Amino acid sequence: MPEMPEVQGLAVFLGERAVGRTITRTSVAAIAALKTYDPQITALHGVEITAAARRGKFIVLSCGADLHLVLHLAKAGWLRWYDALPATLIKPGKTPIALRVALDDGSGFDLTEAGTKKSLAVYVVRDPQEVPGIARLGPDPLDEDFSREAFAALLDGRRTQIKGLLRDQSVIAGIGNAYSDEILHAARMSPYAIAATLSPDDVDRLFTAMRQTLTEAVAEASGKPPADLKDAKRRGMQVHARRGETCPVCGDTVRSVFFADRSLEYCPTCQTGGKPLADRRLSRLLK
Q1: Is residue 279 within 8 Å of residue 258, measured between CB atoms?
Q2: Where is the Formamidopyrimidine-DNA glycosylase catalytic domain (predicted)?
Q3: Domain check: are 153 and 110 in the same one?
Q4: Three-state secondary structure call for residue 238
Q5: Is the pLDDT of residue 129 over 70?
Q6: How sure is the predictor about 287, in pLDDT bands with cuts at 50, 70 and 90?
């Protein structure tokens, strides 16, 4: 799933390539992806893109004075850029393309989504706050005014596992499964640690790891074209999606815990005092 660093990289890329260009045509190939009907998506035709920004995991393209094209790539979505947009006809239901946007210089982009579970979302709104997912976002962890004290206040009293809390967009915006793994590894903290029980030193370590991990990942993503962002993300991971590999910090073997639709990765030596966490799939089989 694209998370803050990759979405920021896409927003920067679109800011460099699409801002100042006029939308000439939009083609919706997956009607379920379009979540709004007023304004209609055709209202964007003939309108100049004036800004590109990130809100959590959302990309917001501001168009003219009061229109915004908001994109959420969900778990398996991506953006494919073309300097020369293909002239081929998009056939709904027979392509991974959900949306095509053509610009006045012949360039443009497709939003694509792999797999059978379709969650990619497209909104055309007059105010980004009209998008429910944006309206409920918590603070951005890289905002200058997001302090260690503000972070501690978010954790205070929450009887929630820290892994889940970091992924909760209403608490902190932009972090998903991959970067929560990376942050917790950098902080040398179990994903099952309860937020309310963290000591001041734990909070310091976690806050520093979060800011440093995300800052480095955003810097790595910035300036890369969309086609290179996924590989850059994979190369930067220390534990996420590296089950069975060697932890680069201590040399232990990276392990996984599997859930219904995802897994988490961690290093026992670095994060859980050398104790492996129970594999949920194996536990179910043994019952």
Answers
A1: yes
A2: 2-96
A3: no
A4: coil
A5: yes
A6: very low
Q: What CA–CA distance (Å, rounded) separates 76 from 113?
A: 5
Upper half-sphere CA count for residue 156 (Cβ side, 13 Å):
8
Looking at the structure, do residues 37 and 155 belong to the same domain, yes or no? no
Query: What are the Cα distances from residue 254, in Å, to 108, 212, 250, 282?
Result: 41, 21, 10, 17
Exposed (0-12), middle (13-18) or buried (19+): which is 160, by Cβ within 10 Å? middle
The catalytic residues are 2-3, 57, 262
- In this structure, the answer to whether residues 173 and 239 fall within a common structural domain is yes
Q: Which residues pair with 100 in a beta bridge?
A: 27, 110
Residue that is last in its domain, among 69, 100, 135: 135
Q: Is the pTM of this model over 0.90?
A: yes
- Domain region containing 171: 148-286
Domain finish residue from 105, 135, 165? 135
- State yes or no: pLDDT of 214 exceeds 60: yes
| Contact criterion met (CB below 8 Å) for 150 and 142 | no
Instruction: Determine whether 273 is exposed, middle or buried from the number of CB atoms within 10 Å of its CB (0-12, 13-18, 19+).
Output: exposed
Is the per-residue pLDDT at 121 higher than 70?
yes
Structure confidence by residue, pLDDT tens digits, 36-84 = 999 999 999 999 999 999 999 999 999 998 999 999 999 999 999 999 9
Rounded Cα–Cα distance for residues 102 and 107 (Å)? 6
